[in-house]
Amino acid sequence: MTSASAVASIGHDPDALEAFYLEHLDQVQRFVARRVANPQDAADLTADVFLAAIDCSHQYRPGSGAPAAWLYGIARNVVAGHYRSAGRAVRATTRFRARDWLDDGAIDRLAARIDAERNARALFTALAELPEHQRSVVELVVVDGLGLAEAAEVLGISPTNARVRYHRARKRLTQAVPTIAEVIS
Amino acid sequence: MNAELDSFERQLLSELRQYVADGAAPGGESERRRRHIVRTRLALLTAGAAAVIVAVLVIPGIGSSPAYSVGFGNAGEIYVEINRPEDAEGLERALEDHGIAADITYLPELQMCAPGRYTAVDRKLTGMMTSVGEHQISVTIPPNAVRDGESFVLAWSVLPMTAEEMAEVATEPGVRVSEGFHVSVEFDVAIGAVAPCEPIAGT
Q1: B27: domain range?
Q2: Does residue B113 sit in the same domain as residue B52?
Q3: At what angle do helices A67-87 and B88-97 cross, to 10 degrees?
Q4: Please, which residues 41-70 of chain A have a Cβ atom closer than 8 Å to chain B?
Q5: Cα angle at B202 between B196 and B203, to 5 degrees?
Q6: Do B82 and B111 lie in a common domain?
């Protein structure tokens, strides 16, 4: 598991970067696949998340959260930036055109991953009716499968706050989501 | 482990390794070589403040570091470091890449933007801070501080210190002065459109 000091190294140590990448690639790819339906966008966003992590690694403070939680926070902002750009019909130029590296096999594998996450994507879309502070908690718990404590860590809020937001969100949603007891269990 | 990656995943890893090896990341070796060690006085403002800071900024020579950098913190907050008042549009694009709509204005001679060009959001912006120091301006934008339909607004103006002012500061212990500036910073979160800045004389 990546240590805090290892996270700080990924911006200047290629071997540390590789270890971090191998440990968290699946996490990032699944996160992205739950939010975009297009293999090309998924490829670009996966690259963007790791680039953002590298660029921010020198600012990582171990006391503020585990590496995985830190990475979730970065991924959330990168995907939010994608949707914001798409809504304005402007796709910011990414430093890596990762979609250009997709061969047929990689496209098929990405498409299969995206297809496997279709239920999660549907739920992600259904959560749009929630206010942002509630949606962010439910999204991490129900779409990404984090526990409440872990979701709290990603968002930088207390576990109690996360539990309250989750409970209120469930009362508003027309689509069923697990109870807190079910999430905890 | 490498053998389990598909062609795209291997290519991405290779490109990322090269990116790191090239020292392109902020804080990377190539940036550390360019950085100078300086002593400054720090000024801390809370969000929504429009303030004129008379600060001694002992800064690296122009061109010795990127004009700005933008990155994420542990909990999704965004850190902005502005080293020089250059390329405001580039910084706006970089913030856009990080999910933040922004209006950045750099002005000469301690000018400010005339008031009334935007409507500030009516809520407390807990955790949003700016500081003036080694990197000239650092801004922390907490998660969800700038929402859909809102923009982070920053107007920054500098005025070089006179030789007399620098000589006065140089007598203070622990301060090595290569250049000095007066700084005016205004930042806030606006809802809706932000009108172009109309420069006026600073206070």
Answers
A1: 1-34
A2: yes
A3: 110
A4: 43, 46-48, 50-61, 64-65, 69-70
A5: 140
A6: yes
**Domain total in chain B:** 2
Please check whether residues B14 and B71 belong to one and the same domain.
no
- Reported as a single tens digit per residue, the pLDDT across A59-107 is 777 766 788 888 988 888 888 766 655 544 333 344 577 888 888 888 9
Check: CB of residue B166 under 8 Å from CB of residue B178. no
**B 63-122 → A contacts, CB under 8 A:** 69, 71-79, 93, 96-101
* Domains by residue range for chain A, with CATH: 1-116 (1.10.1740), 118-185 (1.10.10.10)
CB contact under 8 A, A105 and B6: yes
pTM summary value: 0.54
Closest partner residue to B96 (CB to CB) among A74, A85, A105 is A85
| Helix and strand numbers, DSSP H then E, in chain A | 10, 0
- End-to-end, the C-alpha distance of chain A in Å comes to 24
The ipTM of this complex is 0.81
CA dihedral A86, B18, A9, B29 (to 10 degrees): -110
What mean pLDDT comes out for the span B84-99?
89
Contact predicate B114/B148, CB 8 Å = no
Residues B121/B126/B132/B133 CA torsion (nearest 10 deg): -150
Interface of B with A in 19-48 (CB under 8 A): 19-21, 23, 25-29
Same structural domain, B169 and B78:
yes
* Per-residue confidence (pLDDT) for residue A177, from 0 to 100: 63
**Looking at the structure, do residues B50 and B8 belong to the same domain, yes or no?**
no
Do residue B77 and residue B87 come from a single domain? yes
Instruction: Answer yes or no: do B53 and B107 share one domain.
Output: yes
Please indicate, yes or no, whether residues B20 and B73 belong to a single structural domain of this protein.
no
Please give the structure tokens belonging to residue A153.
């860590």
- Average pLDDT estimate for B177-191: 73
CB contact under 8 A, B16 and A21: yes
Taking an 8 Å cut-off on Cβ atoms, the answer to whether A18 and B17 are in contact is yes
